[in-house]
Amino acid sequence: MAQDTHIDTSPGGQRALIALGANAASPAGVPEATLRAAMARIEALGTGARHSRLWRSPAFPVGSGPDFVNAATAIETELGAEALLAALHEIEAEFGRERRTRWGPRSLDLDLLALGDLLCPDLAGWSLWRDLPLDRQAREAPDRLVLPHPRLQDRGFVLLPLSEVAPDWRHPVTGFDVLAMRDALPPAAREGLEPLG
């Protein structure tokens, strides 16, 4: 188990893991075009970018909108977590993202999944959001950054693309790497997921 809080103060960049998703048109066009354009913008935030294939996945929760196109990107960045999140929100806005309805259709969704082995705000805060019941997840959002993303280990549409760009990243709380988390997914979490090429 990880300690309550860990902030990497080592010199140089840290690996940032970012999930991308879209299920509505943006100024760049259809979701596939949007994700490719957003990947190019994310590259400017660091070095050594690695991008997954594009994946099609059913909207979550089921029936909440058109199918999504998902992907993942890993970069080395000098940016801190808050600055990186702000930059990702700026990219979302460039592609027409409006935050109206939680889990509604969106032109671009960029989730900061992890930054190195940073755990924030602390173990108790992270655990609170990880264990939040589904009905509350639909209504509530954290008022601060929570890293790693508290439900990345449960989501096939995150872990399948992520396994292509950061298979060795290890969760600072559970100790499992991405491949182990992907392989532990129940069949329902993989249902409807397929690479687009």
TrEMBL record:
Pathway assigned to this chain's UniProt record: Cofactor biosynthesis; tetrahydrofolate biosynthesis; 2-amino-4-hydroxy-6-hydroxymethyl-7,8-dihydropteridine diphosphate from 7,8-dihydroneopterin triphosphate: step 4/4
Statement: the UniProt record of this protein carries the keyword ATP-binding: yes
Gene3D superfamilies: 7,8-Dihydro-6-hydroxymethylpterin-pyrophosphokinase HPPK
Membrane-spanning parts: none
Keyword Calcium set for record: no
Family: Belongs to the HPPK family.
SUPFAM superfamilies noted in UniProt: 6-hydroxymethyl-7,8-dihydropterin pyrophosphokinase, HPPK
7,8-dihydro-6-hydroxymethylpterin-pyrophosphokinase domain ranges (all copies): 102-113
Function: Catalyzes the transfer of pyrophosphate from adenosine triphosphate (ATP) to 6-hydroxymethyl-7,8-dihydropterin, an enzymatic step in folate biosynthesis pathway.
An example Gene Ontology molecular-function term: kinase activity
EC category name: transferase
EC number from the UniProt entry: 2.7.6.3
Any one Gene Ontology BP term: tetrahydrofolate biosynthetic process
Family annotation (Pfam families): HPPK
Lineage: superkingdom: Bacteria
Protein name as catalogued: 2-amino-4-hydroxy-6-hydroxymethyldihydropteridine pyrophosphokinase
